[in-house]
Predict the 3D structure of the following.
Amino acid sequence: MTRHATIVLFPLIAILVFPQVGATPPSMTLDGQVSSGACESNGTCTLTLSTANPEDVIVLVAQCVAFLSCNATISSVSDSDGHTWTLRAVYTPSREIWEYYTIANSPLSSDRITVNWSGSGGLEFAAFGVSGANTRHPWDPSPRLPLEEAASSSICYVNSQGFTICNVTFSAVGAQDFVIVSTAVNDDQVCQVTLPLRI
């Protein structure tokens, strides 16, 4: 009797542990987004985010909005739902950009996100949820990511319409990635994305 149970049990474990070869991994989608206006004085900057799905990666990207250069520091990021925020990337030459993230196990309902900061210049930020990501390991493990590039003549050129086009090349390890691009454009034109995005 024990022998039959063992023979039946092993195929069941194999079916549960190993997905079918033809199974399609879940796709990642944007799940809620919100951006703040410029916060011109030191202290706090807040916004409210709602999402529709559980198990989201919540990303916050903050940028200094001073005209030429900035000397701002973010001391903390918190929210009314009590999540723990982790600093993932920071770009500090003159026009600072910070990227934080947290994992939301439940959908957010008017979650108030607060950035505490000090320094010169203003601050603005955007927050959004990514549904369908691996919440245990949300970032592509490529050693080249996150990638930081300064706009220079080696990667940028001006096209016939007068727009500056910059090309950045990177290698991703993951099969499906949700690409986040943050740019510090100073007082230049708003960035335009030409679709399809060539990655």
